[in-house]
Amino acid sequence: MAQEVKTQEVVAEEINNSKVTKEELEQIQEYDKKLQQMQFSLGDLSILKHNISKRHTFLTGEYDKMMEEKDTFVKGMNEKYGEVTISKEDGQISTPPSPPAAQ
Predict the structure, then answer these.
(1) Cα Rg for the chain, rounded, in angstroms?
(2) Could you tell me if 47 and 54 are in contact, meaning their C-beta atoms sit under 8 angstroms apart?
(3) Are strands 85-86 and 93-94 parallel, antiparallel or unpaired?
(4) Domain assignments of the chain as residue spans, ordered by start
(5) Measured distance CA(89)–CA(73) in Å, rounded
(6) What whole-number distance in Å separates Cα of residue 76 and Cα of residue 74?
């Protein structure tokens, strides 16, 4: 028996005319579907990260402004009342206790 030698063109044509099994095709499609879902999720996370970063920048700026306003207010209160303690519950002013006298 003579051994049949196939040319590259014949092998390529046989491959082109072949199909994977139904199960293999389903697995290929499942991987593709899952990977696409992951890509969408990664895109969503990137957008969330961007929005969080913008929110962080905004809130940090607002916090800094609020601290400056508070510092200005406290300076004004210190000029008006001196170094006192003010109750946050009822606004009662009290003077801090004096340090003990040196002996």
Answers:
(1) 38
(2) no
(3) antiparallel
(4) 49-74
(5) 18
(6) 5
CB 98 within 8 A of CB 84: no
How close are the terminal C-alpha atoms of the chain, in Å? 122
pLDDT at 45 over 80: yes
Distance between CA atoms of residues 77 and 88, nearest Å: 14
Concatenated DSSP letters of 51-72: HHHHHHHHHHHHHHHHHHHHHH
> What is the model's pLDDT at position 74?
94
Distance CA 30, CA 11 (A): 29
Q: What share of the chain is helix, strand, coil (3-state, %, to 5)?
A: 65, 5, 30
**pTM listed for this prediction:** 0.57
